[in-house]
């Protein structure tokens, strides 16, 4: 672990600091002894009875002065090294705290993931138990029917599962300073992925390119979507197209107003996906319109957004839970773009676990 290396570095710096302090102490003793000796020689020179003896004592005193100066110079150098050592140690302390924080966060995420997997496994076991009990009751009813005096054969067609309806809104309006987005390529990749999905016949993708505000309401009324997906630019809200073919431009719709539009229906969506830069700030408002919201915590590039969307709907098309499909999408982004941060974040209303919510039911 990186924190262990920082601890070893700090221990080595402490050891080096101790040696520097010992060396400073030695030099201070040398300087002290030289001062005493120099004083003695000068006192003896003052009492000398001849010039030759006086000069000899003074030369000895000068030698001691030189030793004092050399020792003090060495002390200055050692104190400078000790100051550098202290600065390096402070830097290592900061790095150690950061490493410990990262390692604790990693451990917390791993624990949370294990807990989610345990809950998912328990939910699967509970559903299996319920299904087994229903099968047993059905078998008992059939035995009772066969044992009655009147036998009737009634064949009821199995109900067809409802298709998952996705309203896919894309917008990359022609705006000064805004970089055009490859939202068309993103949708194309999603369609290709869904064509190969196991339950592709249970998904209905309704795409609204160059989406304007009216397209949101029309999509809600025409398709009654279970999922509302937006791909495009964002910044304090979502940038829709102004629907003007002569003078094209943008229309910034705040998150609050977008949530109000999505609530204006008798058939509320189950999931909102905001595949745009820094949309996490609007996630809490979106929870007023849907129980589960996926948003991006920072700026997201075309490649990252396209890979995430294609793999996410690939997971949904395999009847995976929202949480599992999101994990698959984030993993694919990490494999394809290892330098890209993990930006996708899921938010849910209280009591809803994304790892227990499946948008496609196969049973």
Q: How would you describe this structure in keywords?
A:
alpha/beta, two-stranded antiparallel sheet, single chain, elongated, 8 helices, 6-stranded mixed sheet, 363 residues, Rossmann fold, 2 domains, 58% helix
What does the secondary structure layout of this molecule look like, with pairings?
Blueprint: H1 2-47, H2 51-146, E1 164-171, H3 183-195, E2 203-208, H4 213-223, E3 227-232, E4 238-241, E5 250-253, H5 255-263, E6 271-275, H6 283-286, E7 292-296, H7 302-317, H8 322-336, E8 344-348
Parallel strand pairs: 1-2, 1-3, 3-6, 6-7
Antiparallel strand pairs: 4-5, 7-8
Helix pairs in contact: 1-2, 3-7, 7-8
Structure at a glance:
The protein is of the alpha/beta class and 363 residues long. The chain has eight helices and eight strands. The protein starts with a helix and ends in a 15-residue tail after the last strand.
Explain what you see.
With 363 residues, this protein is an alpha/beta fold. The chain has 2 domains: 2-112; 164-356, Rossmann fold (3-Layer(aba) Sandwich). The chain has helices at 2-47, 51-146, 183-195, 213-223, 255-263, 283-286, 302-317, 322-336; strands spanning 164-171, 203-208, 227-232, 238-241, 250-253, 271-275, 292-296, 344-348. The strands form 2 sheets. It has a 6-stranded mixed sheet, with helices on both faces. A two-stranded antiparallel ribbon has the order 4-5. Helix 1 (2-47) packs antiparallel against helix 2 (51-146), helix 3 (183-195) runs parallel beside helix 7 (302-317) and helix 7 (302-317) runs antiparallel to helix 8 (322-336). It is elongated, with a radius of gyration of 38 Å. It starts with a helix and ends in a 15-residue tail after the last strand. The relative contact order is 0.08. Mean pLDDT is 88; it is low at 149-156.
